[in-house]
Amino acid sequence: MFQFEVSDDTLVRAPGRVWDYLLALRHMAIWEKLNRNGLTVELVAEANAMLDEVKEASLPAFASNQPGPVERDAAVKECSNLDEFWLTKYAPIARRTSKAAMTWIFGGQTPQVGQVESLQVVEDILTRLDAIETGAAPQDVDVKVLTGLSNSGLNKAERERVGQLLVAARGTRTLADMSDASSEVSDAAFSAILEKLHLWWKAASGIARTAGLKKVELIRLGLASPARNKPAPSA
Question: Do 146 and 92 lie in a common domain?
């Protein structure tokens, strides 16, 4: 029976680190820098294939539709990066159509550091967009704002996809819940996948460190930590 018995914490954390790295590539203009330093399309495809192996191994055939731990972790990571991406890309587009609509949908929202807070920002934006579509928004919110956002990528299909991610991100299954599940993947095979992912992350992080990236970009890739505020001197 597959018990997920992997003792090395560096290996256990490898899928999340690789996922963060690949997710940052989707939302940041750093691909060309990394590509010039050796992060090829083939290497990215290799990492995605390994992540699929981890997901397949972690999610054997369950009757329940609730997300497993790997799926939930991936959903949380993607949603927690969307708040900044949406606010940066879509708020200016909404403003061009209707300042009232932009203020109602995005106003008062700021990118959040915590995952829970980021999920809430994304959920609030989705809720307001749905309200516009169903006629439940304030009267001064122009429904035409949906057309502008849709043409720029935030269409109904994307909203539904992110809505499903939010459901997955708030799932509650843990690795302990998976322990009674049968799987054709052995513990040794699963450990081997994690080892390959760990080696991939080491190589990719080395590429990033030599590509002349800014510290904020390294932070988004999971390769640096934000500076902590120093405690105020006592009086």
Answer: yes
Q: Hey, what are 230's tokens?
A: 């120093």
Range of the domain at 104: 76-180
Distances in Å between the alpha carbon of 162 and those of 58, 101, 127, 159?
22, 21, 12, 5
pLDDT digits (tens, 9 = 90+) for 152-194: 889 998 888 888 888 777 654 433 333 334 444 456 676 777 7
Alpha carbon distance 226, 228 (integer Å): 6
Alpha helices in 62-212 (DSSP H): 69-97, 99-106, 115-134, 145-151, 156-169, 187-209
* Structure confidence at residue 173 (pLDDT): 40
Q: Please name the residues in contact with 198: beta carbons below 8 A apart, sequence gap of 6 or more.
A: 10, 11, 14
Residue 3's alpha-carbon distances to 6, 31, 182, 197, in angstroms, are: 9, 37, 9, 19
State how far the Cα of 36 lies from the Cα of 29, in Å rounded to an integer. Answer: 13
- Same domain? For 111 and 167 the reply is yes
Helix 41-58 / helix 69-97 crossing angle, nearest 10 deg: 120
> Which of 81, 85, 79, 86 minimizes the C-alpha distance to 169?
79
Residues 39 and 22 reside in one and the same domain: yes
Distance CA 133, CA 142 (A): 10
Q: Are residues 148 and 81 in the same domain?
A: yes
Q: How many residues would you count in the chain?
A: 235
Distance of CA 53 to the CA centre of its chain: 18
